Amino acid sequence: MATDDAGTTPIPVIRPVGDLDFATIEPFAEELQQLSTRHRAVIVDLADVTFGDSTFLNTIISAEKLTELRLVNIPDVIDRVFTITAMYDILNLYPALDAAQKAPLRSDGTP
User: How many CB atoms lie within 10 A of CB 105?
Assistant: First the structure.
């Protein structure tokens, strides 16, 4: 997993790799939790994620409560999870990293 906490944008980017399930979620969940409590927004680039289960979904929901979570490069396997669970209504999804970096932060100050 890679994290860009000082890149070209003030919004940190986390890039998990592989399966994100009960057995493998801990490093991703810990990093996302830390970033979510320190930044008004966090970008999660899901391009290299190969699987996500309910543990992954709960991790995303928890982070969304703490920060303005922006998800990019959604692979088909994750798109299916978001579709089945109707998460598109509450998540901030962007087609690419550039779009997520350029979008203004919410002005109301809420995550």
Answer: 12
pLDDT at residue 89 in the model = 86
- Determine the Cα–Cα distance for residues 36 and 11; give it in Å rounded to an integer: 10
CA–CA distance from 80 to each of 26, 72, 99 (Å)? 22, 15, 22
* Burial 31-65, CB ≥16 within 10 A → b, else e: bbeebbeebebbbbbbeebeebeebbbebbeebbe
* pTM greater than 0.85 (yes/no): yes
